[in-house]
Amino acid sequence: MAAEGTLNQTKICLTLPPKIQSSGLWKGLALGGKLDWFSFGLPRLELFIAIIFVITHFSHSILKRSGLPMFISQLITGLLLSPAVIGKTTADKMFTEEVVQVLTTLGSFGYAFFFFLIGVKTNPGMVTKVAKRAFFIGLLAVTIPLLSAIMIPHLFTLKDQDKIELLFLSPPYAMTAFPVIYCLLSELKILNSELGRIALSSAIVSDLLGLFFAVSTTLLRVALQKDIRTAMYDLVYVIAFISFLFLVLRPGIKYVITYIPEGQPVNQIFISIILLCFLMCLSLTRWFGDFFLLGVYVFGLAIPDGPPLGSDLVDKTETMVKNLLLPIFVTTCGMRIETLLIRFDDHFTSLNALTAAVALLVKFLVCLLPPLYCKMPNYDAVALALIMSCKGFVEMAIFSFLFDSKIIDEQTYCFMFYIVIYTASVVPAMVKLLYDPSRKYAGYQNRSIMAAKPNTELEIVACIHVPDNVSAVINLLDVAFPSQDNLMSVNVLHLVKLSGQASPIFISHQKKKKDLANHSYSENVIISFTKFQGIYWGALSVNTFTAVSPPNLMHDDICTLALDKLASLIILPFHRRWYIDGSIESEDEIIRTLNSRVLEKSPCSVGILIDRGNIRRPVVDPLSEPEYNVGVIFLGGPDDREVLSFAKRIAPNTRVNLSVLHFTAEKSDDCDSEEWEKTIDNVSLRDIKTNGYINYMQYAVKDGPETTMIIRSVISEYNLMIVGRRENLDSKQTSGLKEWTEFPELGVLGDLLVSMDVGRCSVLVVQQQQTS
Q1: If you average pLDDT over residues 559-566, what whole number do you get?
Q2: Stretch (H or E) spanning 634
Q3: Is 605 helix (H, G, I), strand (E, B) or coil?
Q4: Are 436 and 71 in contact, with CB atoms under 8 Å apart?
Q5: Which residues contact 487 (CB under 8 A, 6 or more apart)?
Q6: β-pair type (505-508, 540-549)
Q7: Which among 246, 441, 480, 684 would be 20 to 30 A from 628, CA to CA?
Q8: How far apart are CA 287 and CA 280, in angstroms?
């Protein structure tokens, strides 16, 4: 017993060795259920993680139909497991102190790791390159709401302690966190849209400014709670730490990267060293108290984004962090809720609510006015203001830290929780309603080869994924025969998967020559097309671009470039590639999905190029006979007429034998609309029949199998076949073939030609601009 007058003593019971891993369920059953595996640490942790994920995914399967992100499901899961819902007694029995500590530790580690990866993806140099509009939006989005929030407490009679507490609560209401905006734009799939790029640029400015205010506020709190000397020491430590990272570590990492061979993965030892440095950084910055998250974020910023190091680091760790550790953190934030009702009769709570409402309203207005002043469409401006006003897991983490540090009570924390869950629910739904990036691709003007005037420059967008696409596209353009009477402008777009970077990049290599050295992955593309331009100097102009973006959003880069350049044709590589012997080399379903999206949204005509290895350049001796044979299959309809228009541009090429194979139905009962289409087809064929450069052949067939038989008999004579896609067009010439189609994006005939191994003829499938 403690002596009288001494401090109270506390008895602590420890189980040694600690009960971590049970002997298993089967042994417990063999012992008649006497082995309580639930009393062991690891099985209990696994059970609760499983419960969290089951509830999260079940709720998300329901909420995602309303357009709500996974983040909301994770918060709701935490709320359902909180003492406010299941009761404090039940929560204490289920989530013992040991379980809560382990879950919180895992969640905090996951959040710190995610913050680190966001830093790795972010290029701090973006701040110096943002447009003036985005810079002012980002600047105003933080400063004006923060000043408004700070002024509110001074308009009312409050205790000095309450004023200081509201001062610490103001930055989260006013801040715009770059990770939150990045995740929101990714969820909405508008990351590389025009609105998405403006929002990202504005967010990086707001984020760095918000970090400055957060550090300032933290130093002020340290000065008030401890003393000024401690705050100054913390400031010196932070400055020294950041200086070391950017003046010593970052240059050192860049130097090491120069020794990594191009295209080769980073050595695993180097990745392990970076992760070890992350753990050391997390431990060191813990000494600074409130600055540990700032430390890992800045450490991530110090690592060069993109390939090779940033990409490898993100690819190897992001899945575990994003799908396991971070959801645990978000859920534990919800599990802190102790009351569902907020009592606004309390003066401080009501004033806090007023501060939050004023800050969010002012933030929305100051983010709305600059876009409207710059003549942005009203709906787009409102969508941008909503995006910049959104709250997410970064703010939730700040509120959780304030709650754990006893700076705010459960009422204030509950109110903040509702603020986050409300904005994170409403903003995505509203933005989806207001902003549709494909709306600008509507076909108000004819952008097709057929609509292009004769002897005018034909604008083409050619897409490149892999080196093999370069030779295939160049050879096709060579067949198309640029000349003074057939001028061409080719906009080459090299599509690169976004990896290890947060912001999509779109580079014009005409405006920024220095990018050739900085982005070597496009160097071969630029050199190859520059040489090709020299062959047809005066008849062909080439502009090269590089788009680094997520694969599911690349269609927006393609369609935007085609829209900006007033292109008449987009050339897309097929997703399947073959060896020279005809066997399949590779298939990329991501490219196939991309092609389908471009076909659906394109502002002009689209051609899918299937290279079977023999689209070689038709360079032969001028005195010899042409050896390159191109066949055009014509059945009728808009797509086939577009093919004829392209064939007319090929016809003057004396190095190419061009043939048009016209398949007609033996018997037809045409309605009025079909008669009109047939009349237009005949007008298009009139020039073909009288053109001395084109061999015209007509075949009367009764059904699809007969068409297939004729094509199979002649396909070996051609190096390239050009056909129309003819989507949703039924005709007797193709009857019975649709059921066997493997690739609907190629149409019936395109799919038929790809499936034929005879002659391994390359194919170009053309779809005319969709104007409806």
Answers
A1: 88
A2: strand 628-634
A3: strand
A4: no
A5: 455, 456, 457, 458, 539, 540
A6: antiparallel
A7: 684
A8: 11
pLDDT attached to residue 2: 45
Classified as helix, coil or strand, 449 is coil
Q: What is the full DSSP assignment across 295-352?
A: HHHHHHHHSPPSTTHHHHHHHHHHHHIIIIIHHHHHHHHHTT---S---TTSHHHHHH
Query: Which residue do the tokens 């606004």 mark?
Result: 344
* Model confidence band, residue 764 (pLDDT cutoffs 50, 70, 90): very high
Least confident among 173-177, 342-346, 684-688: 342-346
Q: How far is CA 258 from the centre of its chain?
A: 28
279: enclosing H helix or E strand: helix 268-285
- Locate the domains of the chain by residue range: 47-51+68-434, 458-767
pLDDT of residue 619: 47
At 30-68, the pLDDT tens digits run 555 555 556 676 777 788 888 889 999 999 888 888 878
What number is the average pLDDT over the span 185-203?
86
Give the list of residues 6+ apart from residue 331 with CB closer than 8 angstroms, or none: 52, 56, 74, 75, 77, 78, 81, 107
| Separation of alpha carbons 724 and 764, rounded Å | 8
- How far is it, in rounded angstroms, from Cα 228 to Cα 225? 9
Q: Tell me which H or E stretch contains 508.
A: strand 505-508
Task: Tell me the sheet residues that pair with 462.
Answer: 492, 571
Report d(CA 395, CA 213) in Å as an integer.
Answer: 14
Are 529 and 544 in contact by the 8 Å Cβ rule? The answer is yes
- Determine the average pLDDT of the residues in 721-748: 84
Confidence (pLDDT) at 591: 93
How far are the Cα atoms of 432, 433, 552, 559, 654 from residue 379, in angstroms, in the given order? 11, 9, 24, 21, 53
CA 208 distance to own-chain centroid: 22
CATH architecture of 47-51+68-434: Up-down Bundle (1.20)
Task: State the residue for tokens 């502009």.
Answer: 543
What pLDDT was estimated at residue 590?
A: 92
Q: Domain 458-767 is in which class? A: alpha beta
Instruction: Strands of 334-474 (E only): list them.
Output: 458-464
Structure tokens at 350: 């009501």
Helix (H, G, I), strand (E, B) or coil at 2: coil
Q: Quick check: 624 pLDDT over 50?
A: no
Measure the CA–CA gap between 24 and 568, rounded to whole angstroms: 67
Residue 569 has pLDDT above 70, yes or no: yes
End-to-end C-alpha distance for the chain, whole angstroms: 89
Helix/strand/coil for 585: strand
Beta bridge partners of 458: 488
Check if the beta carbon of residue 397 is closer than 8 Å to that of residue 334. no
- Range of lowest pLDDT (167-176, 332-341, 521-530, 569-578): 167-176
Question: In angstroms, rounded to a whole number, what is the distance separating the alpha carbons of residues 187 and 185?
Answer: 5
The confidence score (pLDDT) of residue 23 equals 60
**Three-state secondary-structure class, residue 656:** strand
- Coil, helix or strand for 633? strand
CA angle 351, 355, 358 (to 5 degrees): 130
Q: What is the pTM of this model?
A: 0.79
